[in-house]
From TrEMBL:
Domain named HTH gntR-type: residues: 15-83
Homology family: In the C-terminal section; belongs to the class-I pyridoxal-phosphate-dependent aminotransferase family.
UniProt entry tagged with the keyword Transcription regulation: yes
GO molecular function: DNA binding; DNA-binding transcription factor activity; pyridoxal phosphate binding; transaminase activity
Name of this chain's protein: PLP-dependent aminotransferase family protein
């Protein structure tokens, strides 16, 4: 039976026809139904058999090529097989991880490295209706430049969203940005100069480290404990150095998943006022909590020294690149100017769409659904990890966020495990990738944002076998000869 006879499309579905074709071919490749080197039906033949326009098939084939699943030869056709299958590890997965993963496709990879939501969880249907409503209401105005601070009705909606959590802020202090990474870049351009002392957590998001390095700053890291940062170490650093700002993630920290205690947050705020440094608080996943909603450091402050960044990427659709900052009065003018020089303004159409999404109550419904889905995945991964404790791993079950932080036996090396897992088509994030310097090599970050229960169980079993094999190998190598 030919490939074309296995593809079924439904013209009544909301999903575009070319995506239906792309997904079905991709699934058949991953399941081994279509082998590498197989020639796909000609565009004309497949369009005729499926009763669709040739452009539909062209778009499906282009998507296969873009994702590295197929390649075309001029005058010959389109074939399955890619020497550079790129995984979508955008978002907060470090570039080093992304760049190191380039493998042939043949079967499905289990991706524990990504913290982006599964695409099937995107609110596509709701946003399709929202997009149509924005266009009907605003017409061409939806595509004009907004003021550089952002679409005013959206800023008002975000102020109300924060107020529901007991956080009061004036909409005029809210700046809409094109993703949290842009926020960090803008802040650095305004506040960070050559040689300035910048504090970060250890380990931390290396995208922030890259931004501070680009400003030739002196970066100092502070260890993260189970309650938050090491306060004694912070006090020692503050006595020795003049600190410009402290970048931190107190609500389900990346990569450890630690939730800062109220005592630690309160102490950090007191020290920031005493020593006069800015706090840059990055909230990238606080909406994914499984116990009680965490409160930001910002909530503890009446001082004008906290910059709060909130991203929608991990609970929304990452490709929209929407986030916002709440700014101190003293920085409003300078940061607004830096935003303008960066990209003038964030997409007006997407801003207007998000505003409607919030005002219709769809955000609350969506995040509630995500918490339910991700809590089930977290619980299942915890069960699977508990079943392999004989490998020597230790971990704490996170009460929010999208990943586990594993501590390995000291004899094991995270990069060895990473390479061994990759050979078995399992992708993990080595803990050493998240350190400024002198990395610890006995940690792994395992995410469950992009995996289902079957993948979680299968992937954890593969990791178990790798850990046991490496432990036995190390034991044999180190056992003294008699």
């Amino acid at each position: 039976m030919g490939i074309e006879n296995l593809i079924k499309i439904d013209k009544k579905r909301e999903e575009p026809l070319y995506m239906q074709i792309y997904i079905q071919i991709k699934d058949m490749v991953e399941k081994g139904i279509i082998k590498e080197g197989t020639k796909l039906p000609t565009i004309r033949r497949l369009s005729k058999l499926l009763g669709v326009n040739t452009v539909t098939v062209v778009n499906a084939y282009h998507m296969l090529e873009k994702k590295g699943i197929a390649y075309s030869i001029v005058g010959s056709g389109t074939y399955i097989g890619a020497v550079n299958y790129k995984f979508d590890l955008s978002g907060d997965v470090e570039p080093e991880i992304v760049d190191s993963i380039s493998r042939p496709i043949g079967s499905r990879y289990i991706n524990f490295a990504s913290s982006n939501p599964s695409h099937e969880l995107f609110p596509v249907r709701e946003f399709k209706e929202i997009f149509a409503e924005v266009l009907d209401r605003d017409g061409g105005m939806a595509f004009t430049y907004q003021e550089s601070m952002g679409y005013r009705p959206l800023r008002e909606s975000l102020s109300r969203l924060l107020a529901k959590d007991g956080i009061s802020t004036d909409p005029r202090k809210i700046l809409i940005i094109s993703g949290a990474q842009q926020g960090l870049d803008i802040i650095s351009k305004v506040l960070v100069g050559q040689g300035d002392n910048i504090l970060v957590e250890r380990p931390t998001y290396t995208g922030a480290i890259a931004v501070f390095k680009s400003r030739n700053a002196n970066i100092i890291d502070i260890p993260v404990t189970n309650e938050g940062i090491d306060i004694k170490r912070l006090e020692e650093i503050l006595r020795k150095h003049n600190i410009k700002l402290f970048y931190l993630m107190p609500m389900f920290q990346n990569p450890t998943g630690v939730r800062y205690s109220d005592e630690i947050k309160s102490r950090i705020m007191k020290l920031s006022r005493e020593y006069g440094f800015f706090i840059v608080e990055d909230d990238f996943v606080s909406d994914i909590y499984y116990d009680s909603r965490p409160t930001p450091i910002w909530d503890y402050s009446h001082a004008d020294n906290v910059i709060f960044i909130k991203s929608f990427s991990k609970v929304f659709m990452p490709g929209l690149r929407l986030a916002f900052m709440v700014l101190p009065d003293m920085l409003l003018e300078s940061i607004q100017a830096a935003k303008y020089s960066s990209d003038i303004a964030t997409s007006g159409f997407f801003q207007r769409s998000l505003q409607l999404f919030l005002d219709k109550g769809l955000w609350d419904k969506h995040t509630e659904m995500l918490r339910h889905v991700y809590k089930a995945r977290r619980d299942f991964m915890a069960e699977c990890l508990n079943n392999i404790k004989n490998t020597g791993i230790t971990f704490k079950i996170p009460d929010g966020g999208l990943n586990f932080w594993l501590t390995l036996p000291i004899s094991l090396n995270d990069r060895e495990i990473y390479e061994a897992a990759l050979k078995e088509k399992v992708i993990v994030a080595p803990g050493s990738f998240f350190y400024l310097n002198n990395p610890e090599h006995n940690h792994l970050r395992l995410g469950f944002a992009s995996t289902n229960e079957d993948e979680i169980e299968g992937g954890i079993n593969i990791i178990r076998d790798i850990l046991l094999a490496l432990r036995n190998e190390n034991y044999i190598q180190t056992e003294p000869l008699l």
